[in-house]
Design a protein that fits this description.
mainly alpha; 178 residues; two-stranded antiparallel ribbon; 2 strands
Length: 178
């Protein structure tokens, strides 16, 4: 799960990159229903708020293959809607806006991102709980600008401990997506 933990520390940069440039498009026909399974939450609809709440959740306990599949659905959608992430520099702002509008409900998010978006009042406490748990597990971590930070990305068992602590700290958010 090193890739997922890397996402914790660089997800902001990726989000900025995707919002400025876009992502990839691999949402093949028939895979959209899989994305809805990965993001099943009550109250689906067409308004902006319910759609945003149904974004796919990259659960810390999901396999790398499952996380890649969820990301691929989003990237495929972007491509199908005129934005090619592999040729970002050649895309226009209008291409990005069109693809983003069509695909933003498929953009995956980490549990901490969902908590930050849906429950900002409790977000800081959850990050502190995450950091406290990680430290108690023997991994050097701290909170910086509302996110967990590491001197060096944890690997192996340490990465697993970080994931377990994330599941505990954001249990309400992760549980809502089951």
């Amino acid at each position: 799960m090193i890739t997922r933990i890397t996402g914790v520390t660089i997800v902001t940069g990726l989000a900025l990159l995707l919002s400025a440039c876009g992502g990839e498009d691999k949402a093949a026909e028939g895979t959209n229903e899989v994305a809805s399974l990965a993001t099943a939450t009550p109250g689906g609809g067409t308004s902006a708020t319910p759609v945003a709440q149904e974004r796919p959740l990259l659960r810390p306990d999901a396999s790398q293959e499952e996380q890649d599949r969820i990301r691929d659905i989003y990237f495929d959608c972007l491509r199908k809607n005129g934005f090619d992430p592999e040729t970002r520099a050649e895309n226009t702002e209008e291409q990005w806006k069109t693809a983003d509008a069509a695909c933003n409900q498929l953009e995956p998010e980490e549990p901490w991102e969902r908590a930050q978006r849906l429950d900002p009042a409790n977000y800081a406490d959850r990050v502190r709980d995450w950091v406290t748990c990680v430290r108690a597990a023997g991994v050097d971590a701290w909170e910086h600008d509302g996110q967990i930070s590491f001197e060096k990305l944890p690997e192996g068992e340490d990465a697993k401990r970080v994931d377990e602590c994330e599941m505990k700290a954001f249990a309400e958010v992760v549980g809502a997506a089951k």
